[in-house]
Write a structure and sequence with these properties.
The protein has 218 residues and is α+β, with helices and mostly antiparallel strands. It contains four helices and nine strands; from the N terminus they run H-E-E-E-E-E-E-H-E-E-E-H-H. The strands form two sheets. Strands 1-2-7-8-3-6 form a six-stranded mixed β-sheet, with helices on both faces. Strands 5-4-9 form a three-stranded antiparallel β-sheet, with no helix packed on it.
Length: 218
């Protein structure tokens, strides 16, 4: 009989070599069971590792694992970038999108890395397209690394998150080429935990707040 622990080890072994190559310069912060996926949060090498997350950010519910059939599916890689774009009032631009179930959800601007782009360049482009705000990268926050199973393939996705500073533009979603962003708003950085819809993105904001606190104390 194959237990959930056995399945977890199988998934880890299946992704091990590739993950080691991609993350060899990074440090694993922690793992999280969120939205049906096992997610890893990775921070650039050299940054301290938090000992624990606040209890209210823990995700409860039954653990979910890929089926044995999913182990035989071909693997596709996806890479995205985006993050927190700040204005001079310490506000962050968020976009609204409709989920597959039709609910309006507030999330961080981000998108796929195009051929020839660095993650930083993608973050600047995607933020500008989806919010109208032109920014420059000022810091790296963390990378969300996770697997999910689609109809015909298993997908290994890395989403790089950066902090950006506004250097121009104005808030609008008219420039979004995919027309996925339906609205954009400024939200105080301290209010992101209350407004952001996705637990993983709330953790990104939490990580950056901790990083800023460490820098201030140092």
């Amino acid at each position: 009989m194959i237990t959930p622990a056995d399945l977890a080890r199988m998934m880890a072994n299946a992704s091990g070599d590739h993950a080691q190559n991609e993350d060899k310069q990074d440090k694993l912060l922690y793992t999280s069971q969120s939205e049906g996926h096992i997610v890893r949060f990775i921070e650039p090498d050299g940054a301290p590792t938090p000992k624990m997350m606040p209890h209210h950010r823990a995700v409860h519910g039954p653990m979910k694992f890929a089926t044995l059939d999913a182990q035989e599916l071909p693997v596709a890689r996806e890479y995205s970038a985006g993050g927190l774009i700040f204005d001079t009032h310490n506000r962050v631009a968020l976009i609204a999108r409709h989920s597959r179930s039709g609910h309006l959800e507030w999330c961080l601007p981000k998108g796929h890395i195009e051929k020839g782009e660095t993650p930083e360049q993608t973050a600047v482009r995607e933020v500008h397209e989806e919010t109208g705000i032109l920014g420059e990268v000022i810091d790296s926050i963390a990378t969300i690394d996770y697997w999910f199973t689609g109809q015909s393939e298993r997908v290994h996705k890395l989403v790089h998150h950066f902090a950006l500073r506004q250097i121009g533009g104005s808030l609008t979603v008219e420039g979004d080429p995919d027309h996925e962003a339906e609205d954009a708003i400024w939200v105080d950085f301290d209010d992101l935990d209350r407004v952001l819809s996705y637990p993983n993105e709330r953790k990104i904001a939490w990580l950056y707040a901790k990083k800023l606190n460490r820098q201030a104390e140092g």
